[in-house]
C-alpha cells in the first residue's frame, strides 16, 4: 500500500519506517527542509535504539522516502497518517490541535481519489468529527474516511512495540476503511497481535484512558514509597507483592521521580480538560496530576535533608537527566525542575547522560556537562541517580574514584544498599 506519514517526529518516523519494513511504500512529510535532507542522509533527529539502521535500510530499498511536498504526497497515497504534535495549550490543560487542523485544511484540496485519513497523533474525543467536517466542505464524503489509530509506542522500545504490539486499535465508522486497515495490519495480526475495531470516538478515548491509568500506577507507587520510608518497609517488596496479582500486574510499579515524557503529563491534563467540557469530573486523574507535580518538590526536600540544608557551593552530580532510559527525550523530565531549584540554592551541578549534552541547561552558568561518568563525579558531594540507564547499574564507585567519598541518592533503586555502603559511601534510595 502507498502510505503518507505527515510529521517526522517520534510517532511519524518510527511508524513510517516500520510500515516500510513491512513492504509498504511510505513517504514521510515534514515542512522542515533541513530535517528532510538530514533524514535522506541517514541522520536521525531522535534517539531510538535500532531506528537509524532501519531507516537507512528501507531508504536504500526505496520503500521509504522523505519529502516537503504535502500535496503531491497526499495525491500519491492511499492512506494518510497525521502524526503532528498535540502539546498542551499555553496557560491551560487542553490539547493544542492547531497543527492537526492546519494539516487537514492543507490536504483538503488534494483528495483526488478515495483516501483513508487517520489521526495517529493523540487527540481528544470528537477530533475525528471535526476533521470530517473540514474535509466535507470541499469533498464528497464518499471520497474519504476519517479514522483514529492511536499509537502505543514506548520510547526506547518503539521498534519492538510496533512489531509485537499488545493491541492494534482502529476506530472507524465505515466497513470499507475497516477492511482496508485490517489488510494493512495483516502481517502483525498473523503474528498474534490483538486487533480491535471500534468506533472513532472510542479509539480516541482508549489512548487517553490508557495513558492516564499508567500515570496513575506510577503516582500510586510513588505515594506508597513515601509511606514505606516512614514505616521502615522496602517498597520493592510491596511492588513485587502487588505485581504478582494478575489483576494489577508488575509494570509501572517502580517508585522513582515524577513521570515525564511526551505523553503522560499532557495526556492526563487533556483528558481532564475534555471531561470538564462534557461536565464530567475525573477527580482521580486530577489528583494524580497534583501528586505528580508535587513529586519533584518532595524529592528536592529529600536532597536538602541529605545535605543538612547546606546546599550552597555543594557539587551535585546528576547521572542521567532524561525522563527515562533509552531515550534522549527531555520533555517534562524531573531534572528540568530539580536542577534549576538546586542552582537557585547555590549548588554547582554536573551531569552525565549517555545521549549527550542538553541545550535545556545551557542558560545556567553553574551547570556543566561531563563526557564520562568518572569526570562527572570527581569532586562531588552528592551523586544523584536520576535515570535508570544500564550504563549506571554496575558502577563500582570505590574503584572508579579514589579519595573523597560522596553521598549517593539513588532515585531509581538500581543498587543494593548493602553493596554501596560496603564500598564506604552514604547511600539513600526511594521507599527503602
Describe the structure.
By secondary structure, this protein is an alpha/beta fold. α10 (200-231) packs parallel to α13 (283-306). The model has no long low-confidence stretch (mean pLDDT 96). It has two domains: 2-198, Rossmann fold (3-Layer(aba) Sandwich); 200-432, Rossmann fold (3-Layer(aba) Sandwich), CATH 3.40.50. The longest helix has 32 residues, at 200-231. The strands form three sheets. Strands 3-2-1-4-5-6 form a six-stranded parallel beta sheet, with helices on both faces. It has a six-stranded parallel beta sheet with strand order 11-10-9-12-13-14. Strands 7-8 form a two-stranded parallel sheet. α1 links the parallel β1 and β2. The protein is built from 17 helices and 14 strands. The chain is 42% helix and 14% strand. The protein has helices spanning 10-21, 33-40, 51-60, 70-75, 98-107, 127-136, 158-163, 175-184, 186-189, 200-231, 235-243, 264-277, 283-306, 335-344, 373-377, 397-400, 417-422, and strands at 2-6, 25-29, 64-67, 79-82, 115-119, 144-148, 167-171, 194-198, 315-319, 348-352, 367-369, 382-385, 407-410, 427-429.
